[in-house]
Amino acid sequence: MSRSLISISDLTDAEIEKILDLSKVFAEVNSREIPKVPALKGKTVATLFFENSTRTRLSFELAASRLSADVITFSVAGSSVAKGESLRDTAETIESLGADLIVMRHPSSGSVKLVSEWLRVPMVNAGDGAFQHPTQGLLDAVTLIEHFKSENNLNGVRIGIIGDVIHSRVARSNIQLMSRLGAEVVLVGPPAFLPSDISAWPVKVSYSLDEVLPELDVLYLLRIQSERFSDAVLPSLADFSSSYLLSRDRLKRARKDAVVMHPGPVIRGVEIAHEIVDSERSLIRRQVENGVPVRMAVLYWLLAANEGKLDPAW
Amino acid sequence: MPPQDGSVSGYSYSVKAIVMGSIDIDRAIRRIAHEIIERNRENSDLVIVGLQKGGVWIAERLFRSLGEISPGTYFLGSLDISLYRDDHAIRPLIESSSTDVSVSVQGKTVILVDDVIFTGRTVRAALEAILDFGRPRAIQLAVMIDRGHRELPIRPDYVGKNLPTSSYELVEVTPEGVSILVGEDDES
What we know:
The complex is a heterodimer of chains A (314) and B (188).
Chain A: H1 13-30, E1 44-49, H2 55-66, E2 70-75, H3 87-96, E3 101-106, H4 111-118, E4 123-128, H5 134-148, E5 158-162, H6 169-180, E6 184-188, E7 203-206, H7 209-212, E8 218-221, H8 237-244, H9 248-253, E9 259-261, H10 274-277, H11 284-305
Helix pairs in contact in A: 1-11, 2-11, 5-6, 5-11
Chain B: E1 6-8, E2 11-21, H1 22-39, E3 45-51, H2 56-69, E4 73-79, E5 109-117, H3 121-131, E6 138-146, E7 158-162, E8 170-174, E9 177-183
Parallel strand pairs in B: 3-4, 3-5, 5-6, 6-7
Antiparallel strand pairs in B: 1-2, 2-9, 8-9
Helix pairs in contact in B: 1-2
């Protein structure tokens, strides 16, 4: 079994730092007149998505292309999964076709880990259920490190992760990564949206956005993942919005230098007011832009840097 | 500090010969600067690009010499070609953000600078890399040491010193001088 990136907890501190450094190398590559290098020429990267995606998938495919890898693409619609092919057979078929690395997204938590144990090639988790989305965590870290102009750390930064935490793999990756980089994480949301047993998590919890708002440096809004729960969990979106929507009025009560982030897709008017998304306080566009160099760094790290194996000298 | 016996990448090496001192290096850089100016009389828009790692300090010295000798528009840059190598899998990137070509190379003459030319593979990768920054008017190559053993049809335009070597020897170039190193086991 090769080295894969399933969860932030797979990474040592040194590896996190390596990936953050590599993403700066690839940000420079992306700024060139011809933003493409031959580093992964001859390698094939497969994207295997059992769930919808716009930015993650495109950003992985663009990252692979800019490293000169070939990209093959799988989506459930139009595939043999519709004919009843199992997850294992589908994954093994893609490996047999000659993929050197598989990027996978799936609605079930733990599914990417499971598939990685069946296959020989390295895998990258592009989001599995409510478990992890490590490259989103890494690109968010890069965006914040860039914003605060810090040296690969977020020491002393107070990040509020706001909204539907319980269904969010982005939140889980970010809680782990941001706290390891030195940030203080506060989860904010109604009780139904906060996991019940978080005593082991390195976080504080608040049910009131208005109460913690003045202390936060970063307002990280999550999408309400209504496809993952029934109406009984959250009777009314309007009730949620009245307490947790980041409105223009609420943003006025935040710190003057507080910035706004969102992993996308943004449902304007539910989690965040329309005009804030595009305001100068918003890092949402930078998050998307940073996705490409960060994913180039991960692909390069797994495929080229040391053939997916960990070199202690790194 | 004069070259000393020691280890490179885990192997032990000893100094076989010191072939240039710091004064020789200095003289060679100034001579190459004069040659560059002479060859590029028509076009003084020169981008001096040092190849990571060994070429960077030489490019800086060359850049300064050019400015002292003749007025012109000179730019300085550095290039990490790890991502273009045919053996990059076994050589990790040098360090973060070690490429800096902030000026457009479009229509300018690029002088690639390295410490030693050996097989020519580094230069091949550097040619490919620099072309991704635009279309230069011309690319020329300056090296401190040409040690022979080329595996590709590439030759330098400016050479500090031609130095015949065995392929198993190492050539080390520092601001203090140039030395030939041999592996401890190879010396017999």
